[in-house]
Amino acid sequence: MATLYTQADSNIRKTWILLSFFLIFIISLGWFFSYLLESPAILWIAIFLSFLMGFSSYWYSDKIVLSMVRAKLIKKKDNPELYRIVENLCITAGLPLPKIYIIDESQPNAFATGRNPQHAVIAVTRGLLEKLERVELEGVISHELAHIGNRDMLLGSMVVVLVGVVSLISNWFLRISFRGGRRDSKESKGSILFIFGILAAILAPIAATLIRLAISRKREFLADATGALLTRYPEGLSRALEKISADPNPLRVASNATNHLYISNPFRGRQSKNWIARLFMTHPPVEERVGALRGMSI
User: Fold this and answer.
1) Is 255:65 a contact under the CB 8 Å cutoff?
2) CA nearest 285: which of 255, 264, 267, 269?
């Protein structure tokens, strides 16, 4: 029988396998485009620009996100019970106390952000506080602390950089190709090979996005398992996930730019069960997450 420990190890291993494959994919793609265009600089410029964008996102994303969702910072006197839950779980996890924000929305949901544990933030909706029992709320908070402890914001920024590299080099290759540049290269390398290059440039950003989403789903499974280890009560998180996913209220402040942050997809009525749609999900299906939690022992 699987345990929460083996589940966590499995998801860490799968994440790094995906990340390693992603790096190999980008290096191979960059080499292929550079070979066709006889311009090795294209890869290095793309890496530099993507790193610059990713660094900015990593450093300032918490402020941007909190502004987008209109979250309000609270103190201990504003909600002593919530503060006690976060404080106790932080002690268990060995993490510094994050700042706590409230989003004035009726849909139960939550997310964590911040560039590192010392600058972390947890935001919960009003609906989460009103509709969940204490053990369920502890399950949600432990999941978000797991994201902080697992450095998921850093990993997410790394993946965004890699996706940016793929998009930039693919875009540049297509622009140079369709503008008629590097004609000598086309003649020397052969038109068939160049056609493969154009197909790769079109499909590569889609493939990169699919890998990014697969990594995101693995980190959700990992946060579930790690969070359950903190509370020693997987059922609390299981029940919370069921309640959150079943709640019909929309999250008005949700957007495509932030939906991956939440513990559960904030969009209601937009989730499909077919396998193609599941490839583009930021979160694993709730049924799978609950099944994994209930199917493991501590």
Assistant:
1) no
2) 264
Sign for the pseudo-dihedral over CA of 59, 60, 66, 68: negative
Enumerate residues 6+ apart whose C-beta is below 8 A from 186.
36, 194
Burial of 75 (0-12, 13-18, 19+ CB in 10 A): exposed
pLDDT at 121: 94
Task: Tell me how crowded residue 223 is: count the other CB atoms within 10 A of its CB.
Answer: 26
Catalytic residues: 144
pTM over 0.90: no
Place of tokens 């993490």: 95
* Boundaries of every domain in the chain: 4-294
* CB-CB contact of 40 with 34 (8 Å): yes
- Listed in sequence order, the residues at least 6 apart from 106 whose beta carbon sits closer than 8 Å to its beta carbon are 125, 126, 127, 130, 249
Nearest to 114 by CA among 104, 122, 106: 122
pLDDT band at 269 (very low <50, low <70, confident <90, very high): low
Q: What are phi and psi of 257, to 5 degrees?
A: -75, -25
Phi, psi (degrees; rounded to nearest 5) at 264 = -140, 145
Average pLDDT on 76-99 reads 95
Which residues have C-beta within 8 Å of that of residue 224, sequence separation ≥ 6? 143, 146, 237, 289, 292, 293
Would you state the structure tokens that stand for residue 185, as one six-digit string?
A: 């290269």
Identify which of 268, 249, 223 has the alpha carbon closest to the alpha carbon of residue 122: 223
Amino acid 130 reads: E
CA angle (158 as vertex; 152, 161 as ends), nearest 5: 140
Q: What is the pLDDT of residues 171-218, one digit of tens each?
A: 888 887 776 555 555 454 557 777 888 888 899 888 888 888 888 898
Name the residue among 2, 4, 8, 5 with its Cα closest to residue 219: 8
Cβ partners under 8 Å of residue 252, min gap 6:
105
